[in-house]
Amino acid sequence: MTRLKQNMADVLAHVSRFEFYPGTVIDVGVAEGTFPLYKAFPNAFHLLIEPLQEFEPALRKILETYKGGYIIAAANSQPGCLAFNVHTDHLPGSSFFNEAMGPDFDGTQRMVNAIRIDDIPRENGIQGPYLIKIDTQGSELKVLEGALKTLEETELIILEVSMFQFMVGAPQFHDVVIYMKNRGFVTYDIFGGTTRPLDVALGQIDMVFVKENGLFRKDHCYATPNQWKNR
Q1: Domain segments of the chain: what residues?
Q2: 8-229: what CATH class?
Q3: Residues of the chain by 3-state class (helix, strand, coil), percent to 5
């Protein structure tokens, strides 16, 4: 039996079997980069969206190798200027939300520019079909609320999902699955995963969602007749 996929590279290697070629890969919450994603689709346009200016040199470095563009802003459900909690000791952990552990762990507040993905001009190579990856420390569904038009041309979405409410008011696993189902996307795969130090319970997992009636769900059979016979 084939082993379960361990990481993003495994998932994207599987996806490539379906001859899925996104016109644009939208990476939301880039930090230092999501290189398995770029390597899997080297001919796509890579749109990098990152709220922290500290990561701008990394974004420029990525685009020395891959075609694309970047925006220093937080993707959100509405445009504007919003308060953002910056964790200077661990920048990728910065978030719109406050920490469940209390205000001593919220970091330093900073105002950042917020945009809607649907408002980004479709020019300079940005075109569907889209693949979207979002890792924004709890605001993943807010990002998607600002991308409803874009979702119409999206086949695959990768989200970081929490099993507990680590961020006050942020969605948990069950909230995300219901939200995605209501938007026409269903769970396709799960990979990675980290445990929380508190009790070593599963804390976060990366989930792959696909269009419910899209490219990746054309066949609902468990196996071919030969595979079933030889199982």
Answers
A1: 8-229
A2: alpha beta
A3: 30, 30, 40
The predicted-structure confidence for 172-209, as pLDDT tens digits, reads as follows 999 999 999 999 999 999 999 999 999 999 999 999 99
Q: Is the pTM of this model over 0.85?
A: yes
Q: Tokens 């709890």 label which residue?
A: 138
For 103, which DSSP code?
Answer: G
Q: Which residues pair with 186 in a beta bridge?
A: 210
Which residues touch 178 (CB under 8 Å, ≥6 apart)? none
Give the whole-angstrom CA distance, residue 155 versus residue 16: 13
Q: Name the residue with tokens 């990728």.
A: 92
Burial bucket for residue 209 (CB in 10 Å: 0-12, 13-18, 19+): buried
Q: Which amino acid is at 164?
A: F
Tokens of 187: 């769970």
Can you tell me which residue has the tokens 């969602």?
209
User: Is the Cβ–Cβ distance between 14 and 5 less than 8 Å?
Assistant: yes
Instruction: At 188, give phi and psi (nearest 5°).
Output: -120, -35
Q: Which of 144, 217, 231, 129 has its CA nearest to residue 182?
A: 144
Q: What is the pLDDT of residues 65-117, one digit of tens each?
A: 999 999 999 999 999 999 989 998 899 889 989 999 999 898 999 999 999 99
